[in-house]
Amino acid sequence: MSREILEAMYALAREKGIEPEKLMVALEDALLSAYKKQPGSAKYARVEMDRETADFRVIELIIPERLEAHLIVETIDEETTIDPETGEMREPEEPEIDPKKFAEYRDQIDERDVTPDDFGRIAAQTAKQVILQRIREAERDMMYEEYRDRVGELITGIVQQSDSRYTLVQLRERVEALLPKSEQVEGERYDHSQRIKAVIKEVSPSTKGPAIIVSRRDPELIKKLFELEVPEIADHLVEIANVAREPGYRSKIAVISHADGVDPVGACVGPRGSRVRMVVSELRGEKIDIIPFNEEPARFVAKALSPARVREVLVDDEAKQATVIVPDDQLSLAIGREGQNARLAARLTGWRVDIRSETEFAAEEAEHGYEEEEVQGRCAAVLSNGRRCPNASLPGSRYCGLETHQALAGIDSDNIADLAGGGESPESPASESPPDEPALLESPPLEPAAPVSPPPEPAVQAAAEEQAT
Length: 469
Description:
Distance between the termini: 144 Å
Strand content: 15-25%
Shape: elongated
Strand order of the largest sheet: 6-7-8-10-9
Low-confidence stretches: 371-375, 421-469
């Protein structure tokens, strides 16, 4: 073999980023295969190539019969196989001894040079095919190594082809990804040469290169798009705690701030809604609700049902179920179209959500007597209108910071009406909540004022004026 071929191999290895030794070993294997196709070739042989001069020779391995039988016994597969075409049992094929075994018994094996006279011509024909084939294999391996650790990453590609089964997306030169029908958003069109964003769903090796599957439906796509548009998320000052998505229609994301003074919702919305508008544009108009994450389940569930206004939330920690009471005019908005809003809120919070209107809840309470569940961290005081105080309790106490509610700790009842010498009167309008919003804090009772004489009746006052005249 000429030295020019050797130099070309080294140049290709440098250009493609492949180790030259891999090409050398591959060429030796190819030359050995070409030699065994010649008539009268040795049964056991190997090809050696000089890495400096490109000279090669074929070495026959003369193996003793006892050693050959021993190596065959180690290699043979005694299990019979079934012919897939006929279904009949067939004997295993003649085994091929692993060349690595020969190296272990080299001291018992004789060798001799059996290089054919015209082997140079065969080597020249084989070299080109093997080098090109191994370069393609090495490139496929490199692409697989590059993308196999990028699952869940956001990529940008150009649509090359689209049909009823899948869409072909070019990521870069000679690297393509598949967007199958199951990962496409209903109603979206993917035109030729259109630039789209997607997340890598799966990467697997194949004979034609790495099979890269991308997705437009995965909730991870929303996380990555917000990370791209919101610097606070990229800097880990704001985190997307959870995502609930119905692709193409609506999504809800729960965000939490890890830095004081950083509003997580405002950071994701951006100035005049510019940041969230970019994400919505990329998702082709899909609506996005941004919800502040809260450790208290009741408050989190209430926020997750936005844009509906919630009157009260009763939670059952054991069953992980939340009963949500909303004003009558907010019931349809809380449930959403075909139950979409309630379904997304349940996915986002991880709680089962049961939505009731005030009228329905009051009727059930009057008929069956609805027992309110204990709420961790919520004030246990029962107001004069029969509802539980919505304020958070103080640390180490069952009640909030209102003096009237703290006074309940000295009696055996949670009803404010049972307090001796004060409390809230059932007729007092101040103790009742406004029709749309829960009472957050109540004013402590005022000190009784000095008695004031009632105004005179109108008839008495007229008689007194006549006497005066």
